Automatic annotation (TrEMBL):
Protein name as catalogued: SDR family NAD(P)-dependent oxidoreductase
Organism, as annotated: Adonisia turfae CCMR0082
GO molecular function per UniProt: oxidoreductase activity
InterPro entries cross-referenced by the UniProt entry: Fungal_SecMetab_SDRs (IPR051468), NAD(P)-bd_dom_sf (IPR036291), SDR_fam (IPR002347)
Annotated SUPFAM superfamilies: NAD(P)-binding Rossmann-fold domains
Gene Ontology BP terms: secondary metabolic process
Length: 234
């Protein structure tokens, strides 16, 4: 149990953008942060710029063997529980395509990372989450994955986030008996490499709801979709 221990959170894709802002926010709330990136050097460089206990970790959510290796690495470092898992890493492969022109390969790329990667993360890290008291999982989704937010010009991204929202509901139902809360959140249109420089929201604004869900939100709300700390429709 974690009652007498510092709480620990893992953030995928934590080396930049929204993930980096989430890591900053969790450190400010006295969490130990496991910051992951596809390349260990990227995780280490990001960790150096943060104030507080940060463990850099190589993890590619599109690679099952990488996810399994990450768990083994943490266990070898004495990490035996995980209070928070924030599935932030994702891809946006859509470029000058629509639902009629996109290839199966692009569709597969987005689904493989944005949806199946999250499912594999939860499956593989479940023993560490079960070892914590009232663990929380936050899936960074998008309003473009909501039924009323789908757009034909970002087909793989929209469909992968729509499926991620569905996985969130399913995971929440199955994990409720284990006292593990699962929610999805939309950060809004954020100024990141993915969102572009013209986006209206800062990474800190985009990260706020994820941090709140991880640290303050009621444990009674699970299997919901959130934006700006309010429940929105799937």
């Amino acid at each position: 149990m974690t009652t007498q221990q510092q709480k620990q959170a893992l953030v995928t894709g934590g080396n930049r953008g929204i993930g980096f802002a989430i890591a900053q926010g969790l450190l400010a709330k006295d969490y130990k942060v496991i910051l992951t990136a596809r390349a260990l050097n990227s995780a280490k460089q990001a960790a150096k710029t943060l104030n507080g206990p940060v463990i850099p970790l190589e993890l590619d959510v599109s690679d099952d063997s990488s996810i399994k290796q990450a768990v083994q690495t943490l266990k070898s470092q004495g990490i035996n529980h995980l209070d928070v898992l924030i599935n932030n890493a994702g891809v946006y492969p859509d470029n000058s395509v629509d639902i009629l022109t996109i290839s199966r390969e692009l569709l597969d790329s987005a689904m493989h990372t944005n949806t199946f990667g999250v499912v594999c993360m939860v499956q593989t890290f479940l023993p560490l989450l079960e070892a914590a008291e009232n663990a929380r999982i936050i899936n960074v989704s998008s309003g473009m994955g909501a039924l009323d937010g789908l757009t034909t010009t970002a087909p793989s991204y929209c469909l992968s986030k729509l499926a991620l929202n569905g996985a969130t509901i399913m995971l929440a139902q199955l994990l409720r008996s284990k006292n593990i809360v699962v929610n999805a959140m939309c950060p809004g249109w954020v100024r990141t490499d993915m969102g572009g420089s013209s986006a209206p929201r800062s990474p800190e604004q985009g990260a706020d709801t994820a941090i709140w869900l991880a640290t303050e939100a009621s444990e009674k709300d699970s299997g919901k979709f959130w934006r700006d700390r309010n429940i929105i429709d799937f």
